[in-house]
């Protein structure tokens, strides 16, 4: 049996290592995107609450004199409860909205990097898996191993898409003048701001859905990793048992596999 230049022993040891450490790694990524999805959905609901407030809001002609007074015509109690968004008479854009936009951009950058890395890793894994087709003892788990790679590869594409979607949501929000004066001017005119908020909320919400899909794909690998790891472990154990005791040079007397 020939398994490539590295030899069957090294390839199987590497496969055993991957099935151990990457399985644990994926347990994290089966949960982490769900946590991100919850956070994104909270942002989306806060944006919707602000947008829902606008159609009935009338811009105040006599704002409260205190710079720390809440803007009666702009604030939404739901948005304040969800994300802490509070418009103050003497302030500019609420710091919570500034933080949200920065967070969306940071998430976009993170997902883009993760997606690129994972896609490259899956291409390499696909190539290595081809060499394992030569190992008869792994024949029954090759479907599982390739399904893992396919799931992760699709998750990589989803991460790249999530990055694109979140970047666009941040762009949408950057086009809204969130200062009290800016919002009041919009409310007294074309009322474009709420339409931008509705659109941004929809895009953020879709990114949250994609995060859930990514997590589902990775979670689907749990049993497949377990089955694959067990079989590789059995094959490696059998190979080690066939290996004689160390020779005079300290290396194992390994019978030929060609």
CATH architecture assignment name of the domain at 7-45 and 94-180 and 191-242 = Up-down Bundle
Strand content: under 5%
- The CATH class of the domain at 7-45 and 94-180 and 191-242 is identified as Mainly Alpha
The CATH topology of the domain at 7-45 and 94-180 and 191-242, please? Butyryl-CoA Dehydrogenase, subunit A, domain 3
Topology, number of strands: 0
Given helix and strand content, the structural type is mainly alpha
Cα Rg: 27 Å
Task: Give the H and E element order.
Answer: HHHHHHHH
Query: If helices are DSSP runs of H or I spanning 4 or more residues, what is the number of helices?
Result: 8
Largest sheet: none
Mean pLDDT: 87
Which of globular, elongated, flat, extended, rod-shaped describes the shape?
A: rod-shaped
- The unreliable regions are 1-5, 244-258
Distance between the termini: 4 Å
How much helicity do the residues have? Answer: 55-70%
What does this structure look like?
- With 258 residues, this protein is mostly helical.
- Helix content is 70%, strand content 0%.
- The chain has 8 helices and no strands.
- α2 runs antiparallel to α3.
- It is rod-shaped, with a radius of gyration of 27 Å.
- It starts with 6 loop residues before the first helix and ends in a 16-residue tail after the last helix.
């Amino acid at each position: 049996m020939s398994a490539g230049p590295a030899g069957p022993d090294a390839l199987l040891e590497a496969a055993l290592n991957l099935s151990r450490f990457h399985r644990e790694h994926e347990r994290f990524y089966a949960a982490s995107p769900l946590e991100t999805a919850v956070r994104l959905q909270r942002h989306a609901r806060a944006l919707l609450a602000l947008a829902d407030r606008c159609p009935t809001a009338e811009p105040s002609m006599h704002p409260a004199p205190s710079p720390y007074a809440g803007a009666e015509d702009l604030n939404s109690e739901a948005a304040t409860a969800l994300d802490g968004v509070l418009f103050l008479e003497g302030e500019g854009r609420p710091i919570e909205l500034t933080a949200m936009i920065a967070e969306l951009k940071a998430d976009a950058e993170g997902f883009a990097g993760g997606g690129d890395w994972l896609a490259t890793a899956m291409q390499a894994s696909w190539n290595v898996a081809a060499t394992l087709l030569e190992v008869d003892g792994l024949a029954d788990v090759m479907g599982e191993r390739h399904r893992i790679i396919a799931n992760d590869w699709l998750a990589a594409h989803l991460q790249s898409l999530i990055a694109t979607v979140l970047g666009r949501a941040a762009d949408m929000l950057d086009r809204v003048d969130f200062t009290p004066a800016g919002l009041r001017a919009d409310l007294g005119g074309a009322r474009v701001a709420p339409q931008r908020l509705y659109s941004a909320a929809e895009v953020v919400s879709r990114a949250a859905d994609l995060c859930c899909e990514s997590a589902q794909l990775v979670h689907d690998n749990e049993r497949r990793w377990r089955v694959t790891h067990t079989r590789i472990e059995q094959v490696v154990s059998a190979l080690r048992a066939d290996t004689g005791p160390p020779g005079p040079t300290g290396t194992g007397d390994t019978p030929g596999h060609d």
